[in-house]
Amino acid sequence: MSNWNRRYSIVSSCIFLWGSFSFAGQKVVVIGAGLGGLVSAYELQKMGYDVRLFEKGQRPGGRVFTVNIRGTPVEIGGEDFSDGGDVESVHPLIQELGLNFKELQAPFSLSYVDSHGRVLNWFDLFGQAEAKGLPIFTEEAIEKRIESVLKAIQARQSRDNIKGNMREFLEKFFEDHTDLRDFFDARMKTFEGKETEDLDFSYAKGSFKELLELYLERFHKVKAGDQVASSSVSIEGGNGRLPLALAKRIKEMGGQIEYQASPRIIHDRNNEKKYELQIEKGGTGSKPTHEIVEADIVVLAIPSSAYGDLTVDGKIKHAVEQAKVLEYSPIAKALVPLKWATPPSGYIQSNHSFGWLSSDNSVATLYYSGKDAAVSEPDLKASIQRDFENLERIYQATSQVLANDLTYPGDTQFYSCPNGAIKNWTDSYARGGYSTRTPKTAELLDATTETCGVKVLQAFQPLNGETFYFVGEHTSKDARGSMLGAMLSGMDAAKMIKNCHGSGSK
Asked: Would you tell me how many other CB atoms lie within 10 Å of the CB of residue 501?
């Protein structure tokens, strides 16, 4: 008896076999119903493949999660599709599903609450730096200063054999301009979801440079007397409508989606180029059942932080094990219903949270990342209660609830939370907000290769004769850490499967 069969001979629950009576065509198993998994399943189902999708939770969407706060749809998961870049590449798919992108624009203002409790205006921070002669106010000056600081860090790194990080970079870049340094330290932590000492210094030429150039563009416009606006892109009616629409279309085309079902073991039958998966089914508190599923192609579309839940063998084992080293940002969100006399506006950045308002100004979002999110529920709620003071001072608004009134939403899109909501994304499903680039994972995320006409990260290239695929924002070459990246990775996987294997031949 093989190890595979011996493993299942002791399972007490009922085991069913899918294979002998399946649909015609090549069988694809997609693991995970986040945006990446749903998009790949949808595209493959359209091509004629027999798709079966398994999701550990009770709803589609993964880290895309919309709740209802007193009639207002608010995102307790992913918020802005344009965070990953230009959304035009996925616009046709959005329209195909009968949905629309909504671009929200509002006058830009931001108040920074420093570690001493002072409320500082973002524009004044740059004005003070300009007055003191900090050489960062042209593109050429930015490039020159970044290169100079990086060169110094690399020399120190070579000498001391200690990897540099973004905290070191910011200290050298801003020197004695401590308020602006602390402001960007807080912005980088919010933007990337990690403490700056945990971020690889290569972010200097990436998100830091983008943020600095954005703020300097705004600074110059305001200085010239022009107005500046902030913008974001979401799904009209709530981002949760996208996974619901994808799931509906997949089912209408004959695909299968099963919730509260997740693989525990993926067995690579090397000689037959097929896979056997043990699927565990059942919710919390119920006795699990198991099903053995055969597949010609497997699409692994769960966060790499959850790869540890899987037992894999064969040629795919090394790649899955290697990807476990990727780190995810601890992220938590609180959605707070507000009461005010005059409509508030703007963003609030502190050293431990970031705040903004819903489009109708009725709900404030408090966003926590890094060490501020990786705390117990009582400690998180204590931080939220303290941040109510900033809402009152800056927005001239009062919360309609106490932090202890905030509830965790049920695992359903558009779940109603009249007293506000709280969600810590370091749960047993997502295991973090989104993937980040750290000093120890930088090399893993640099190398690229081309497979079946699609350029991909080498660490997540298809395996086993292009029959095993990795999908998710963490696998995205250009838009990692975003909803756009998740969607593009799903589209790329479907494109590679089509180019490598043809249509599903239904």
From this structure: 19
Residue 440 clears pLDDT 90, i.e. is over it: no
Instruction: Tell me the C-alpha distance between 317 and 59, whole Å.
Output: 29
- pLDDT for res 3: 32
Higher pLDDT, 318 or 335: 335
Average pLDDT, the chain: 90
Rounded to an integer, the average pLDDT of 295-316 is 92
Computed on alpha carbons and rounded to an integer, the radius of gyration of the chain in Å comes to 24
Q: What is the distance between the terminal CA atoms of the chain, rounded to a whole angstrom?
A: 35
Three-class SS string for 220-283? Answer: HHHHCCCCCEEEEEEECCCCCHHHHHHHHHHHHCCCEEEECEEEEEEEEEHHHCEEEEEEEECC
Q: Is this structure's pTM higher than 0.85? A: yes
User: Which stretches of 283-395 are assigned E, i.e. beta strand?
Assistant: 289-295, 297-300, 311-312, 327-328, 331-340, 347-350, 354-357, 363-369
SS (H, E, C) 102-171: EEEEEECCEEEECCCCCEEEHHHHHHHHHHCCCCCCCHHHHHHHHHHHHHHHHHHHHHHCCCCEHHHHHH
Query: Residue 282: its pLDDT value, please?
Result: 87
pLDDT at residue 23 above 80? no
Distance CA 345, CA 359 (A): 10
Q: Are 324 and 306 in contact (CB under 8 A)?
A: no
CA 134, CA 219: separation in Å to the nearest integer?
14
Residue 147 CA to chain centroid, in angstroms?
Answer: 29
Residue 457 CA from chain centroid, whole number: 17
Using the structure block, give the residue that is written with the tokens 């509002």: 106
Chain mean position to CA 118: 32
Q: Per DSSP, what are the bridge partners of residue 50?
A: 27
- Integer CA distances (angstroms), 142 to 203, 204, 463, in order: 14, 11, 42
pLDDT at 71: 95
Q: What is the DSSP letter of 408?
A: P
